[in-house]
Amino acid sequence: MSKILYIVVPCYNEQEVLPETARRLRMKLEDLTSQRRIDPNSRVLFVNDGSRDMTWSMIEDLCESDPVYAGVSLSRNRGHQNALLAGISVAVEHADMIVSMDADLQDDIDALDRMVEAYKQGNDVVYGVRSSRQKDSAFKRNTAQVYYRLLKLLGAEIVYNHADYRLLSRRAAKALLSFREVNLFLRGIVPMVGFRSTTVTYERGERFAGKSKYPLGKMVTFALEGVTSLSIKPIRMITVGGLFVCIVSLLMLVKALVDYCSGNVEPGWTSIIISVWVLGGLQLFAIGIIGEYIGKTYMETKERPKYIIESVLLREEDNAG
Questions:
Q1: Long-range CB contact pairs, 285-292, < 8 A, 24+
Q2: Buried residues in 171-204 as b, exposed as e (16+ CB within 10 A)
Q3: Within 13 Å, how many C-alpha atoms sit on residue 123's CB side?
Q4: Closest to 114 measured CA to CA, from 191, 169, 36, 166
Q5: N or C: less crowded end of the chain, CB within 10 Å?
Q6: Rounded to whole angstroms, how far apart are CA atoms 321 and 311?
Q7: Can you tell me the mean pLDDT for 142-169?
Q8: pLDDT at site 119
Q9: CA within 13 Å, CB half, 143
Q10: Cα–Cα distances in angstroms (integers) from residue 180 to residues 82, 99, 167, 215, 274, in the given order
Q11: Are 147 and 223 in contact (CB under 8 A)?
């Protein structure tokens, strides 16, 4: 079985953590190579996602100093998911297996050993799954659990407690690249690829340095992206809700007619105001959800490129030399 491994690492303003990330990943590749579990031509591929600091120049220095490092620079910032896909599109031309992971060293690098072993056992997709969320704040832990359950409820096929730490075989990566949607939510799309898969559990650590690139606002946007990209059930729920409101309205109409005929008519200011506010809120909420889907359809029909690669640094020498 071919054993060339590429580790794809999206980077956005990661100058504080990049030297340590590069050092640890190189040590891991050396260890796996010495055990003959991967090919000496395996590499660490950093993807510069339009960083505004020294990230790209540092990647250039790494690539110049050691062929184990490779670099891809996007023409502008396109977001984590697009940067990750760009790296996979470059790696798939050279690698037999591709591991994607973040640059912040929160993902356990030692889990790579078990991922490679699972690949050798015939798995095309190996998901890195967090064994617990004890290190998260109570708010983040509870909202994450609610979110995963919501996605399941809406019919999305998603691996619980899995982010973007995963291994893909070459054929799985090529299948993933065949998906054409602009609105990317890879942790929901990868299970659609199919093929044999398994999971590897690990304990997620603290960020080594720098600041998180996913503050609360971006996390909410990303969560909404996942819901609307993977399921149309919210629109169906609006339809069901609208039908329910219509039935209730008809029952209230019958009641009003009965009250009128019986002469039992009293002022109903409170009920009118409540009805107006409830129906108005439901209508605005429904319009917002429908608008979200229309907006996504609009972006998909434009068929704009998900990313534009400005430059690629990849030396062809055998790393063992």
A1: 286/238, 286/241, 286/242, 289/234, 289/235, 289/238, 290/235, 290/238, 292/224, 292/228
A2: ebbebbeeeeeebbbbbbbbbebeeebbbbebeb
A3: 19
A4: 166
A5: C
A6: 25
A7: 74
A8: 93
A9: 9
A10: 12, 21, 21, 28, 45
A11: yes
